[in-house]
Amino acid sequence: xxxxxxxxxxxxxxxxDENALVTLFNRYKTHILNFALRILGNRADAEDVxxxxxxxxxxxxxxxxxxxxxSTWLFTVARNLCINRIRxxxxxxxxxxxxxxxxxxxxxxxxxxxxxxxxxxxxEASIMVRKAILKLAEEQKEAxxxxxxxxxxxxxxxxxxxxxxxxxKILIFRAREQLKIELSSFVLEGEND
Length: 193
Description:
By secondary structure, the protein is an all-alpha fold. The chain has two domains: about 1-100, RNA polymerase sigma factor, region 2, helix turn helix motif (Rna Polymerase Sigma Factor, Chain: A); about 110-193, Orthogonal Bundle (Arc Repressor Mutant, subunit A), CATH 1.10.10.10. It contains eight helices and no strands. It has helices at about 5-15, 20-40, 45-60, 70-90, 120-135, 140-150, 155-160, 165-190. Helix 1 (about 5-15) crosses helix 2 (about 20-40) and helix 4 (about 70-90) crosses helix 7. It starts with a helix and ends with a helix. The relative contact order is 0.10.
């Protein structure tokens, strides 16, 4: 039987059980990496954020509270690290990933259930979705990614983003509406082919 996150944390804190920490790392590393990758758009930065996130867990040690799940706490740490990374980029005056760039291979957005007939169509659709997501306002992008790619509920997103439940609902609604607008021309092009 698989141990719960909180049980692993307690084991780690009480006896410095490194196996518990390794289990948590293996359980969440891909989720955190994908989240950071979608926010930052750069694999190297996303890997750094993932490492820093687990380093924070190691140094600060999550304190179990019934109100906040471990996964929510971990995604909050990852989000804050992403925000810090974006601020650092802006201070340096350069961005690693330009919105107009055609270099999208570092993303992992395509869905295995995609109904596209060919790999080319899948790739094209994936690129269009990524471009549309990049055009979203930062908060809309974060909320949408947490909801759609990490299957979090509105309450968890609210805690991670430190905002009201209503604001999360509005952000996701607006993000979806913006994506509909951005992707409508792509859908119409496909129908005309």
